[in-house]
Amino acid sequence: MLISIPEVLSKGEVQQIREHLDKADWQAGSQTAGSIARHVKQNQQLDDNQEPAISLGNHIVRALSQHPIFISAALPDKIYPPKFNRYSENETYGAHVDAALMQIPNTQQSMRTDLSATLFLAEPDEYDGGELTIETQYGPQTVKLAAGDMVLYPSTSLHQVAPVKSGARVASFFWIQSLIRDSQQREMLFDLDQSIQKLTSELGQTHNEVVNLSGVYHNLLRQWATPA
Predict the structure, then answer these.
(1) What average pLDDT does the chain have?
(2) Mapped to the 3 state alphabet, what secondary structure does the chain carry?
(3) Per-residue pLDDT tens for 126-139?
(4) Same domain, 117 and 130
(5) Are 52 and 76 in contact (CB under 8 A)?
(6) Would you state the pLDDT for residue 218?
(7) Do 189 and 80 sit in the same domain of this protein?
(8) How many whole angstroms separate alpha carbon 6 and alpha carbon 228?
(9) Within this chain, do residues 105 and 194 fall inside the same structural domain, yes or no?
Protein backbone atom coordinates (compact mmCIF):
# COMPACT_ATOMS: atom_id res chain seq x y z
CA MET A 1 0.00 0.00 0.00
CA LEU A 2 1.38 3.36 -1.08
CA ILE A 3 -0.16 6.35 0.69
CA SER A 4 0.41 10.05 0.04
CA ILE A 5 -0.05 12.04 3.24
CA PRO A 6 -0.67 15.77 2.74
CA GLU A 7 0.58 18.62 4.91
CA VAL A 8 2.70 16.76 7.42
CA LEU A 9 4.49 20.10 7.64
CA SER A 10 3.05 23.53 6.90
CA LYS A 11 4.68 25.76 4.29
CA GLY A 12 6.03 27.90 7.12
CA GLU A 13 7.61 24.88 8.80
CA VAL A 14 9.15 23.79 5.51
CA GLN A 15 10.62 27.26 5.01
CA GLN A 16 12.18 27.24 8.48
CA ILE A 17 13.65 23.77 7.96
CA ARG A 18 15.04 24.75 4.57
CA GLU A 19 16.74 27.80 6.07
CA HIS A 20 18.70 25.45 8.33
CA LEU A 21 19.36 22.86 5.62
CA ASP A 22 20.52 25.38 3.04
CA LYS A 23 23.27 26.49 5.45
CA ALA A 24 24.22 22.98 6.60
CA ASP A 25 27.33 20.97 5.74
CA TRP A 26 26.44 18.02 3.56
CA GLN A 27 28.47 14.85 3.11
CA ALA A 28 28.53 12.18 0.43
CA GLY A 29 25.56 9.87 0.87
CA SER A 30 27.63 6.85 -0.15
CA GLN A 31 29.39 7.05 3.23
CA THR A 32 26.23 5.82 4.95
CA ALA A 33 25.21 3.20 2.38
CA GLY A 34 25.58 -0.55 2.70
CA SER A 35 27.95 -2.58 0.57
CA ILE A 36 25.42 -3.04 -2.25
CA ALA A 37 23.66 0.34 -2.12
CA ARG A 38 26.99 2.16 -2.12
CA HIS A 39 27.37 1.38 -5.82
CA VAL A 40 24.06 3.03 -6.80
CA LYS A 41 23.81 5.85 -4.25
CA GLN A 42 24.91 9.28 -5.46
CA ASN A 43 23.51 12.01 -3.24
CA GLN A 44 24.31 14.12 -0.18
CA GLN A 45 23.26 13.63 3.45
CA LEU A 46 23.49 15.43 6.75
CA ASP A 47 25.42 13.95 9.65
CA ASP A 48 22.66 12.31 11.72
CA ASN A 49 24.50 12.84 15.01
CA GLN A 50 24.92 16.59 14.74
CA GLU A 51 22.80 19.70 14.48
CA PRO A 52 20.70 20.70 12.67
CA ALA A 53 19.72 17.10 11.82
CA ILE A 54 18.84 16.16 15.41
CA SER A 55 16.52 19.08 16.21
CA LEU A 56 14.91 19.09 12.76
CA GLY A 57 14.30 15.35 12.99
CA ASN A 58 12.68 15.77 16.41
CA HIS A 59 10.40 18.44 14.95
CA ILE A 60 9.27 16.05 12.21
CA VAL A 61 8.56 13.25 14.70
CA ARG A 62 6.41 15.63 16.76
CA ALA A 63 4.49 16.62 13.63
CA LEU A 64 3.94 12.97 12.73
CA SER A 65 2.58 12.18 16.20
CA GLN A 66 -0.19 14.74 15.61
CA HIS A 67 -1.11 13.72 12.06
CA PRO A 68 -4.18 11.43 12.07
CA ILE A 69 -3.61 9.92 8.62
CA PHE A 70 -0.05 8.94 9.49
CA ILE A 71 -1.14 7.35 12.77
CA SER A 72 -3.97 5.49 11.03
CA ALA A 73 -1.83 4.24 8.15
CA ALA A 74 1.36 3.38 10.02
CA LEU A 75 0.15 2.45 13.52
CA PRO A 76 3.71 3.26 14.59
CA ASP A 77 5.58 1.40 17.29
CA LYS A 78 9.03 2.86 16.60
CA ILE A 79 10.17 5.65 14.27
CA TYR A 80 13.78 5.82 13.13
CA PRO A 81 15.12 9.36 13.67
CA PRO A 82 14.55 11.22 10.40
CA LYS A 83 17.49 11.66 8.06
CA PHE A 84 17.96 14.37 5.44
CA ASN A 85 19.25 14.12 1.89
CA ARG A 86 19.81 16.36 -1.11
CA TYR A 87 20.15 15.49 -4.78
CA SER A 88 21.84 18.07 -6.98
CA GLU A 89 22.35 17.93 -10.74
CA ASN A 90 23.08 14.40 -12.05
CA GLU A 91 22.74 12.83 -8.60
CA THR A 92 20.57 9.74 -8.26
CA TYR A 93 19.90 6.62 -6.20
CA GLY A 94 19.52 3.42 -8.19
CA ALA A 95 17.10 0.59 -7.51
CA HIS A 96 17.41 -0.86 -4.01
CA VAL A 97 15.48 -2.30 -1.07
CA ASP A 98 15.94 -0.82 2.40
CA ALA A 99 17.60 -2.88 5.12
CA ALA A 100 15.19 -5.08 7.08
CA LEU A 101 16.68 -4.33 10.51
CA MET A 102 18.30 -1.14 11.78
CA GLN A 103 19.85 -0.09 15.06
CA ILE A 104 18.35 3.12 16.41
CA PRO A 105 21.19 5.65 16.76
CA ASN A 106 22.67 6.20 20.22
CA THR A 107 20.64 3.34 21.72
CA GLN A 108 20.94 -0.40 22.18
CA GLN A 109 17.60 -0.89 20.44
CA SER A 110 17.05 -2.27 16.98
CA MET A 111 13.92 -2.04 14.89
CA ARG A 112 12.26 -3.79 11.98
CA THR A 113 11.59 -1.60 8.95
CA ASP A 114 7.97 -2.22 7.99
CA LEU A 115 7.35 1.13 6.28
CA SER A 116 9.57 3.64 4.50
CA ALA A 117 8.74 7.34 4.33
CA THR A 118 9.91 10.25 2.20
CA LEU A 119 8.91 13.74 3.33
CA PHE A 120 9.44 16.24 0.52
CA LEU A 121 11.11 19.53 1.47
CA ALA A 122 11.41 21.08 -2.01
CA GLU A 123 8.56 22.09 -4.29
CA PRO A 124 8.27 20.11 -7.55
CA ASP A 125 9.13 23.18 -9.62
CA GLU A 126 12.42 23.66 -7.74
CA TYR A 127 14.03 20.74 -9.56
CA ASP A 128 13.70 18.71 -12.75
CA GLY A 129 13.86 14.93 -12.49
CA GLY A 130 14.37 13.37 -9.07
CA GLU A 131 11.13 11.38 -9.11
CA LEU A 132 10.79 8.59 -6.56
CA THR A 133 9.69 5.40 -8.31
CA ILE A 134 8.30 2.58 -6.17
CA GLU A 135 7.56 -0.90 -7.48
CA THR A 136 4.11 -2.05 -6.36
CA GLN A 137 1.84 -5.00 -7.09
CA TYR A 138 0.16 -2.76 -9.69
CA GLY A 139 3.42 -1.79 -11.38
CA PRO A 140 5.82 1.11 -10.84
CA GLN A 141 4.39 4.22 -9.17
CA THR A 142 6.15 7.57 -9.61
CA VAL A 143 5.96 10.09 -6.77
CA LYS A 144 6.90 13.77 -6.69
CA LEU A 145 4.93 15.65 -4.05
CA ALA A 146 4.59 19.20 -2.81
CA ALA A 147 6.92 20.37 -0.05
CA GLY A 148 5.49 19.30 3.31
CA ASP A 149 3.74 16.23 1.88
CA MET A 150 4.94 12.68 2.52
CA VAL A 151 4.71 9.28 0.86
CA LEU A 152 4.52 6.10 2.94
CA TYR A 153 5.18 2.69 1.39
CA PRO A 154 6.23 -0.86 2.37
CA SER A 155 9.95 -1.18 3.07
CA THR A 156 9.93 -4.43 1.09
CA SER A 157 9.44 -2.37 -2.09
CA LEU A 158 12.14 -1.95 -4.70
CA HIS A 159 12.51 1.79 -5.24
CA GLN A 160 14.81 4.38 -6.78
CA VAL A 161 15.30 8.13 -7.26
CA ALA A 162 15.68 9.32 -10.85
CA PRO A 163 18.63 11.57 -11.73
CA VAL A 164 18.09 15.25 -10.99
CA LYS A 165 18.49 17.26 -14.19
CA SER A 166 18.58 20.71 -12.60
CA GLY A 167 17.93 22.34 -9.24
CA ALA A 168 18.03 20.40 -5.97
CA ARG A 169 15.71 17.78 -4.51
CA VAL A 170 15.67 18.06 -0.70
CA ALA A 171 13.84 15.57 1.52
CA SER A 172 13.72 13.80 4.85
CA PHE A 173 13.47 10.03 4.96
CA PHE A 174 13.00 7.48 7.71
CA TRP A 175 11.48 4.13 8.62
CA ILE A 176 8.70 2.88 10.87
CA GLN A 177 8.23 -0.32 12.79
CA SER A 178 4.48 -0.80 12.93
CA LEU A 179 2.40 -2.38 15.67
CA ILE A 180 0.95 -4.43 12.80
CA ARG A 181 3.70 -6.39 11.09
CA ASP A 182 1.55 -7.85 8.30
CA SER A 183 1.05 -5.33 5.50
CA GLN A 184 -2.36 -6.72 4.44
CA GLN A 185 -3.69 -6.53 7.98
CA ARG A 186 -2.33 -2.99 8.29
CA GLU A 187 -4.05 -1.98 5.04
CA MET A 188 -7.37 -3.47 6.15
CA LEU A 189 -7.20 -1.61 9.45
CA PHE A 190 -6.43 1.64 7.64
CA ASP A 191 -9.38 1.21 5.26
CA LEU A 192 -11.67 0.32 8.16
CA ASP A 193 -10.52 3.30 10.21
CA GLN A 194 -11.04 5.70 7.31
CA SER A 195 -14.57 4.34 6.83
CA ILE A 196 -15.29 4.78 10.53
CA GLN A 197 -14.06 8.37 10.40
CA LYS A 198 -16.33 9.10 7.42
CA LEU A 199 -19.35 7.51 9.10
CA THR A 200 -18.62 9.41 12.30
CA SER A 201 -18.72 12.72 10.44
CA GLU A 202 -22.04 11.75 8.82
CA LEU A 203 -23.83 9.96 11.67
CA GLY A 204 -22.07 11.05 14.85
CA GLN A 205 -19.81 9.02 17.11
CA THR A 206 -22.66 7.60 19.21
CA HIS A 207 -24.54 6.04 16.28
CA ASN A 208 -24.91 2.25 16.66
CA GLU A 209 -23.14 1.46 13.38
CA VAL A 210 -20.20 3.67 14.30
CA VAL A 211 -19.95 2.09 17.75
CA ASN A 212 -20.16 -1.43 16.31
CA LEU A 213 -17.54 -0.82 13.62
CA SER A 214 -15.25 0.85 16.16
CA GLY A 215 -15.53 -2.28 18.27
CA VAL A 216 -14.58 -4.45 15.30
CA TYR A 217 -11.57 -2.21 14.60
CA HIS A 218 -10.25 -2.37 18.14
CA ASN A 219 -10.82 -6.11 18.43
CA LEU A 220 -8.86 -6.70 15.22
CA LEU A 221 -6.14 -4.37 16.48
CA ARG A 222 -6.05 -6.29 19.77
CA GLN A 223 -5.73 -9.59 17.89
CA TRP A 224 -3.07 -8.50 15.38
CA ALA A 225 -0.92 -5.98 17.24
CA THR A 226 2.56 -7.07 18.30
CA PRO A 227 4.00 -4.24 20.42
CA ALA A 228 7.67 -4.42 21.36
Answers:
(1) 95
(2) CCEEECCCCCHHHHHHHHHHHHCCCCEEHHHHCCCCHHHCEECEECCCCCCCHHHHHHHHHHHHHCCHHHHHHHCEEEECCCEEEEECCCCEEEEECCCCEEECCCCCCEEECCEEEEEECCCHHHEEECCEEEEECCEEEEECCCCCCEEEEECCCCEEECCEEEECEEEEEEEEEECCCCHHHHHHHHHHHHHHHHHHHHHCCCCHHHHHHHHHHHHHHHHHCCCC
(3) 999 999 999 999 99
(4) yes
(5) no
(6) 97
(7) no
(8) 29
(9) no
Task: Summarize pLDDT for 23-73 with one digit per residue, the tens.
Answer: 999 999 877 766 666 789 999 999 988 999 999 999 999 999 999 999 999
Residue 89 shares a structural domain with residue 195: no
123 and 68 assigned to the same domain: yes
* Distance (Å, whole) CA 216 – CA 184: 17
| Rounded average pLDDT over 152-173 | 98
Rounded distance between C-alpha atoms, residue 199 and residue 204, angstroms: 7
- Mean pLDDT, to the nearest integer, of 129-156? 97
Q: Give the distance from CA 48 to its chain's centroid.
A: 17
For residues 68 and 52, membership in a common domain is answered with: yes
CATH number at residue 76: 2.60.120.620
Boundaries of domain holding 141: 3-178
**Using CA atoms, how far apart are residues 57 and 166, in angstroms rounded to an integer?**
26
Which pLDDT belongs to residue 36?
67
pLDDT of residue 29: 84
Q: How high is the pLDDT of residue 31?
A: 73
